[in-house]
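Lab notes, practical 5.
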Amino acid sequence: MSNLLVEIGNTALKAACSEGMTLGKTFRYQGEKMFPFIDSLVKKEKPEILVLASSAEISPQNEKRLSDSCSRLLLLDKRRKEVIESYGLPEYLSPDRAASILAVRHLFKGYSCTVFDFGTTLTIDFVGKEGEYLGGNISPGCRTRFRALNRYARGLPLLETPAEVKDIGGSIPSSMEAGVILGIMFEIGGYLSQFPENTVVFTGGDAIYFAKRMKNPIFVVCNLVMMGLALIADEHVGKNGI
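Output from the prediction step:
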């Protein structure tokens, strides 16, 4: 029997089945009926344990709903920090960042790492050689920057992430594209020059987009959060003898 891992992020729900650290079927949902969607997955997959990590707090009603539908439920959200803290991580970390750090500890044991997560926000986290969390930074993600320009600067259009970017813009759209994409690239470059000895890990929805523009060697691990949740699920099942 497999485990079911669910991450509710800022814009979408991602889910995957896992056996130990091996990920199986993956699912994605974007809409208002997230908990009915989770219910349908639980009924279909019949997991040994459901691990749900959410950027928003899970209400008592939805907690009861989920606990009634599965044999074992483990919630990670703003109110439930015990699991995160049990791994020696600070309670202010969101569940997805905490899961990413646990996965990096496992995959890159013995190496100091700089972890870039390209999503609604761009998070940059630092992990020491012994797996210790050293801290991290947060800035707007790629699409968030385009939306902000459109919303707060009168007359600027709303643009999609471009396939190609000029070094210097020759129009309003190309200037915005260069400003956003090259701005993020310069941001990445600054961190790499500050910590040149670190192993660099990219994850998140825009990870491959920016990885293609890198000259430095990096690792792209698209399912880093899910791998961290798989680790939590596997250890929790082992500890509780389920």
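Observations recorded by the TA: The chain has eight helices and ten strands. The chain has a mean pLDDT of 92.
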